[in-house]
Specification:
372 residues, Aspartate Aminotransferase, domain 1, Aspartate Aminotransferase, domain 2, 2 domains
């Protein structure tokens, strides 16, 4: 199987797997226990915390482990709104955000929140003038993701955060697809969500970085093991794997970026001009190619190219049978959205896999056209 679905998840790094193994065997202590095994597990978690928090160094704040970025996104929106004063009930976000943000925002809007969901242009980018008009002195929180999980577009996070802060609002960034791949806009944000399994770490572990002074209410109650505001027994194995993956991503940052850029150029050459890129060509992460071809039956394509793992949209929405809401948000018709695929690649993807995988995809698409 050729794996070209790096936005859904990434293969675990050998270094991350090795870091986890002791805590699945003899070092199984509860990190919140006071005996030696507990203290050893706690120490390993703190080492991992430092590694994951390395991109935030120099900015006053703390990194809190969560079960994943979905929990962090829920926590940011619900926690900030719960702590906000009565006069600040507005949430401003973007139509192409991850479902953990949009669903949380809509749930809050079913109560006392005032929700503004900003549209995006054909390039997938938000209009800053429109954002400025929506962010006012009633705004509690502005939420925007750094890199879109479906189309790879990079939003102007720093500019949006500046608008939020000028209005006295907090700013939350879902940096899941950017962490370890792009520089993070740390100085601009109040809260940032990251996760391990998008950087070759284990699934089931994420984190939220919280700037000092940001008031946020707990999402989970029952012990306050994380910083007194997040409850639940931490998994030392998952934390250790996340830490190892983060340290490796930092060491390989330039090497990985160059590798991905070379693969992108190779992939675009193989696809050719009949495949149209969805979203901005310039403001995007290079390891995400969301492309469409006129008349393509994606369901049939995926059935015929079973030895290549690629996607027709986000893993979260797979199987819904509906056109991607992200592609609809950038103005694509139902037919255009249904003729689009997402190809994702990264550190462990080889040039030979790009050649073989895209070769099979292009060949199957050509057969469809010949038989149409």
């Amino acid at each position: 199987m050729i794996y070209l679905d790096y936005q859904a998840t990434t293969p675990i790094a050998p270094e991350a797997r090795a870091a986890m193994m002791p805590f699945l065997d003899e070092a199984f202590g509860n990190p919140h226990s006071s005996h030696r095994m507990g203290r050893e597990a706690e120490a390993a978690i703190e080492v991992a915390r430092g590694r994951v928090a390395a991109p935030f160094a120099g900015i006053p704040g703390r990194l809190l482990f969560t079960s994943g970025a979905t929990e962090a996104g829920n926590w940011a929106l619900k926690g900030v709104l719960a702590a906000a004063p009565p006069g600040r009930r507005r949430i401003v976000t973007i139509a192409t955000e991850h479902s953990c943000v949009l669903d949380s925002a809509h749930w809050l809007a079913s109560g006392s929140a005032d929700l503004v969901v900003l549209p995006v242009g054909h390039d997938g980018l938000v209009d800053l003038d429109e954002a400025a008009g929506a962010i006012d002195d009633t705004t509690a929180l502005v939420a925007a993701m750094l890199v879109n999980n479906e189309i790879g577009v990079v939003q102007p996070v720093a500019e949006l955060a500046e608008l939020a802060h000028a209005a006295g609002a907090r700013f939350f960034c879902d940096a899941v697809q950017g962490y370890g791949r792009l520089p993070l806009p740390v100085t601009s944000c109040d809260m940032i969500a990251v996760t391990a399994h998008k950087i070759h770490g284990p699934k089931g572990i994420g984190a939220m970085w919280l700037r000092d002074g940001v008031g946020i209410e707990p999402l989970l109650h029952g012990g306050g093991q994380e910083g007194g505001i997040r409850s639940g027994t931490l998994a030392p194995a998952l934390c250790a794997g996340f830490g190892a993956a983060a340290a490796l991503a930092a060491r390989r940052f330039e090497e990985d970026a160059a590798h991905v850029a070379a693969l992108r150029a190779r992939a675009l050459d193989l696809l050719g001009p009949e495949w149209i890129l969805n979203g901005s060509a310039g403001h995007r992460y290079a390891g995400n190619l969301n492309v469409r071809r006129k008349g393509l039956d994606v369901g049939r394509l995926m059935s015929e190219v079973r030895n290549v793992a690629f996607s027709a949209g986000s893993a979260c929405a797979s199987g819904s049978g509906k056109p991607s809401r992200i592609l609809k948000a950038i103005g694509l018709s139902d037919a255009e959205a249904r003729s689009s695929i997402r190809i994702g690649f990264g550190r462990y993807t080889t040039a030979e896999e790009i050649d073989a995988g895209l070769g099979m995809i292009v060949e199957a698409a050509e057969r469809q056209r010949a038989w149409a």
